[in-house]
Amino acid sequence: MSKKIILLLIDSFMPHVLQEAREKGLVPALSFLMEKGAYWDNCVTVFPTMSATVDASLVTGEYPEKHGVQGLIWYHRPEERVVNYINGSKSVWRIGVSKCTKDALIEVNETHLSQDVTTVFEELTRRGKTSASFNFSVHRGPCRYRLRKPGILKLILAGLSFERMVSGPEICTIGRFIDSEFLRSFPWKWSHSIFQKYGLNDWFAIDATCRLVKENKLPDLTVVYLPNMDYAYHRKPDQGPQILAKVDRGIQRLLDSFGGGEEAIRQCRFIVVGDHGQTKIGAEVEANIDIPQHFVGMKMAEMKEIKPDSDDVVICNNERMCYFYPLKEGVQEETIKRLLRDSRIDVLAWKERGGVRVRRGEQELFFAPGNKIADEYGRMWNTEGDLSLIDARQKEEGGSVFIAFGDYPDLFSRLYGALYAREGDVIVATAAHGCEFFTPDDPVHRGGASHGSLHALDSFVGLIITGETKERFARPRIVDLKSYILQQLT
Ligand SMILES: [Zn+2]
Description:
Layout: E1 4-10, H1 15-23, H2 28-35, E2 37-44, H3 51-60, H4 64-67, E3 73-76, E4 81-84, H5 89-95, H6 97-112, H7 120-126, E5 131-134, E6 143-147, H8 153-156, E7 166-168, E8 171-173, E9 178-179, H9 181-184, H10 202-214, E10 221-226, H11 228-235, H12 240-257, H13 261-267, E11 268-274, E12 279-280, E13 288-290, H14 291-294, E14 313-318, E15 321-326, H15 331-340, E16 345-352, E17 355-360, E18 363-375, E19 380-385, E20 392-397, E21 400-405, H16 411-419, E22 427-431, E23 436-438, E24 449-450, H17 456-459, E25 460-466, H18 481-489
Parallel strand pairs: 1-10, 1-11, 5-8, 5-10, 13-23, 18-21
Antiparallel strand pairs: 2-25, 3-4, 6-7, 6-9, 11-25, 12-24, 14-15, 15-22, 16-17, 16-22, 17-18, 18-19, 20-21
Helix pairs in contact: 1-12, 10-12, 11-12, 12-13
Bound molecules: zinc ion (ZN).
Residues 230, 234, 451 line the site of zinc ion.
């Protein structure tokens, strides 16, 4: 019989932080898991390097062009509105707390995630297996759950009715927002309070997993989302190893719930992975790329209400990446012209002839799905122009020629995936090293760190799999994990 799997997704789990923490002896639990299996420091996530998109790719095994979750913040053209899965209190307030809550809790799973893809939870059900999701944002599955408004949210969200149910695996929590047998019998703790985001934290998710272990009720797959590292690292990137040490204590607690690490890995295979990295942002004003300054004389849409007849462009800021959705003829060209002047913009790209046009200053590159040359992940493309723009090159190895990526890993699939996640014109910009985009209502991290871009620092995450050998993956990707899990469990 195959071993049960516990997948721990650590938000902002970065290889260089793990290495430093190991050298300082701060992460015994993670070190133990690494020694009992294989570790990769080159696992590539999808783009934008923002949680909602990554979670959707992890559970479906697809890039966004298939699953449709375009970013943490994106423009829904058919519904003429901005979707925000809760990033930035001001921005959420502008769009409407109820709308954002509904998007994050219901729509992401029930309508935004394409019906043409399946989640790992749905696939396991088909195979007669069971699963659990603790606080994972994308959890579409075989069971239906009613949502609830914990504590004071009953008043704040008085106008919001949760008449629709949300689906998930056999055991499913989103903090205290999902009403279930499991939650009702879960004793209240401080980590469930409003001050701890109603359970959307590491302690809640680890407690929930420990409980399944102690009651001997672990399903075949348990997916556990650990967000605390992200919150803390955004503010204090210099404290990275110490922040990871706190996450490690939670993981140690989980191992101890089995009666120790050896017993834990005897019973289960552990997968520990990150969703994205982070990049330090300069403290100076110039570190923020002021978007409104670029659009003087043009009409930027208000987040609260998009007016396609009079607005020129909808702007969706995903920290170190930004989407620009032109609403009128000529706006795409004008937007590109203006953004190209800013040297703090690293990669500028848009849809063209079924492929992608990329620009930086005078440098140009075009690529499209095709049949001329494979990239190092085996996907076939046609390309024209300057590969050095994206630090890629043609490489010959063992008699075959392929495209090898440098500072922008797996760029073709990732950039194509973001642009083609939704129909209609859209331009993508990423911020140069040390910079992030600034729009008045969205969070800023000057002197801290943020993510969203295609660069290696935002894109490589750590991956540990116990009981596995390094040869299993030469170049692992987040999109490979679903099929790996299914293989292991069947
Ligand atoms: Zn973050």
